[in-house]
Amino acid sequence: DLYRKVFVFRKDPSDAYVVLRARLEQPLHNFTVCLRSYTDLSRPHSLFSYATKAQDNEILLFKPKPEEYRFYVGGKFVTYRVPEGRRDWEHVCASWESATGIAEFWLNGKPWPRKGLQRGYTVGATAAILLGQEQDSFGGGFDLYNSFSGELTDVYLWDTGLSPDKMRAAFLSLRLPPALLTWKSLSYEVKGDVVVKSRLRE
């Protein structure tokens, strides 16, 4: 149980990462991924990387610079311009729906304009899911200068699009529906220099 805990990625740049294990029974036609990050990096870095053997950027949350997020599905991406962070925790949720190709992006409990991405696509179920690195091959192929350095917490993956109420609940750390990946019962393996610590503040 990682309640009120964080992963601290201590080094910059880093070869460390955390492998997450999700019970995916079938391919995803909808999903939502949420997480909270705290970093002072200004270089590009990966937050959440979900790769299949066919597509290394099957799902990717990537921050190329402090005022931009990229959300990838099936190797294609949409860009969200955001205010440069005040060196504080940033909570992001990204959801996608195959039927409409609608991508939603929420930052700190507020929605950004919806965008179109990969309508009709299906996300593969046999996946390597990593925090802290961006995969260029299944489970590997890392570029250290895309690595994450800082703190990560509250990582979730659902096989549905969350309602606006639940998006806000995720930001506020309230009760959430059952998920494929749940921070409070996370199955994970640390690879390299990552330390689990208590959160410094709420």
Provide a brief overview of the structure.
The chain is mainly beta.
Counting DSSP H or I runs of 4 or more residues, the number of helices is 1
In round numbers, the mean pLDDT is: 96
CATH third-tier fold name: Jelly Rolls
Main β-sheet description? 8 strands, antiparallel
Radius of gyration from the alpha-carbon trace, in angstroms: 15 Å
* Percent helix range: under 10%
**Low-pLDDT segments, ≥5 res:** none
Class from secondary-structure proportions:
mainly beta
Task: Give the DSSP E fraction (strand runs of 2 or more residues).
Answer: 35-45%
Distance between the termini: 17 Å
Features:
single chain, 202 residues, mainly beta, 8-stranded antiparallel β-sheet, metal-binding
Please characterize this protein's 3D structure:
The chain has a single domain, classed as Sandwich (Jelly Rolls), CATH 2.60.120. It contains one helix and 15 strands. With 202 residues, the chain is mainly beta. It has one helix at 164-171; strands at 5-9, 17-20, 30-38, 45-52, 59-65, 68-73, 76-81, 90-97, 102-107, 110-111, 115-116, 127-131, 150-158, 188-191, 194-198. Strand 6 and strand 7 form a beta hairpin. It is found in: Secreted. Keywords: Acute phase, Calcium, Disulfide bond, Metal-binding, Secreted, Signal. One of its GO terms (biological process) is innate immune response.
